[in-house]
Amino acid sequence: MDVYQPAGASEPVPAVLLWHGRGPDERDVLAPVARAAAELGVVVLVPDWRPDAPDGGRTHLRESADFARQDVARFGGDPRRIVLAGWSLGGKAAVGVALNPAAFRGWRPRAVAGIAGGYGSAAPTTGTVPLDDLRPGGIPVPPIPVWLVHGTADPVVDVERSRELRTALEDRGWPVSLDEVATDHAGVIMTEFVAEHGRCLPSTADHAAAAGSRTARLLARAAGITV
Q1: What is the pLDDT of residues 78-94, one digit of tens each?
Q2: Helices marked H in the chain — which ranges?
Q3: Are 140 and 171 in contact (CB under 8 A)?
Q4: Is 148 left (phi over 0), alpha (psi -120 to 50) or beta?
Q5: Span 158-174, mean pLDDT?
Q6: Which phi and psi (to 5°) does residue 201 adopt?
Q7: Which of the four pLDDT bands, split at 50, 70 and 90, describes residue 118?
Q8: Of the candidates 160, 162, 161, which has an alpha carbon nearest to the alpha carbon of residue 149?
Q9: Which pLDDT belongs to residue 6?
Q10: What is the DSSP letter of 110?
């Protein structure tokens, strides 16, 4: 797990637990946006996890949440103010916890942020489909704020997936916002996919810098920081 801390904090600050996407052990991919969010005043925890594990990574994700709750104070974070966030598959995983907290022993983060996620198939954290969890007839769950951000030029997960979730949450009375940014799946976290490396690497392209900065601000706002 990488930890990004704001400079000069004299008292506990909000924290963000940020999960990467489908590539196993790719916490480094989130370094640019995590660093940018920390500069705005939050502690950001970015763990590795393995979606290719036999349980789809659920144990790794649950252990990272347990660590954040128990140990974030060591890094200057406030355990009462933790935002759960994720990119791509990690975004689906985070939203799943908000809608089905029983899978995480009833834990409710302060808020949840989904970055370029799709929500129409099972989340690795819960084994249930987030959109299905919102349908009438399910177990009612007290709403928490949900913050979404998605690139309008995303060829991997269409922006319509976040629009669907926003509508479903609004219909059930959940507080939700969606930032649509002019970038692709990688740009929304200030990166670009480099085929020869088979992973996303930091990008200085204008669209990625602008979109990643907006994502960092969204994480900070979700944590309660005025940006």
Answers
A1: 999 999 999 999 999 99
A2: 31-39, 58-71, 89-99, 130-133, 160-171, 206-222
A3: no
A4: beta
A5: 97
A6: -125, 160
A7: very high
A8: 162
A9: 95
A10: S
Residue located via tokens 């196993």 = 24
Q: Which two tokens stand for residue 143?
A: 């709403």
Pairing assessment for the beta strands 176-181 and 146-151 based on DSSP bridges: parallel
Rounded to an integer, the average pLDDT of 135-154 is 91
Residue type (1 letter), 22: R
The mean pLDDT value for 153-173 works out to 97
Specify whether the CB–CB gap between 159 and 171 falls below 8 A: no
Higher-pLDDT residue of 137 and 16 is 16
What is the pLDDT at residue 140? Answer: 79
Query: Measured in Å, how far apart are the chain's first and last C-alpha atoms?
Result: 26
Q: What share of the chain is helix, strand, coil (3-state, %, to 5)?
A: 35, 20, 40
Question: What is the CB-side half-sphere exposure of residue 126 using CA atoms within 13 A?
Answer: 29
Q: CA-to-CA distance for 121 and 38, rounded, in angstroms?
A: 31
User: Contact at 8 Å (CB) between 101 and 107?
Assistant: yes
Identify the DSSP state of 125: T
